[in-house]
Automatic annotation (TrEMBL):
Protein name, as recorded: Sulfur carrier protein ThiS
Source species, domain of life: Bacteria
Organism of origin: Halobacillus shinanisalinarum
UniProt cross-references to Pfam families, sorted A to Z: ThiS
Length: 67
C-alpha cells in the first residue's frame, strides 16, 4: 500500500497499519509530533484508531531542539 508522507510516496511495510505504527516506523513514538491526516490535524488519542489506506496523505511535524 502506498501513502504520501510529507509529500513523498511511501510503500508501507505490512506492519504499518495505523498512525501509531507509522510513528513507530519513523522512530517518532513518544516525541512531540503533530500529525495531519488527509488535511486534518488529529489528536494523539486518535493515532491508534486511524487505519491507513492507500492514497492517504500524512504530514508529520516534529520539533527538534537546538541553540
Amino acid at each position: 500500500m502506498t501513502i504520501q508522507v510529507n509529500g513523498d510516496p511511501l510503500d508501507c511495510p505490512e506492519k504499518v497499519v495505523t498512525v501509531t505504527d507509522l510513528l513507530d516506523f519513523y522512530k517518532l513514538d513518544g516525541k512531540m509530533v503533530i500529525v495531519e491526516y488527509n488535511q486534518t490535524i488529529i489528536q494523539r488519542d486518535q493515532y491508534s484508531d486511524i487505519h491507513l489506506q492507500k492514497g492517504d496523505q500524512i504530514e508529520l511535524v516534529h520539533f527538534v531542539g537546538g541553540g
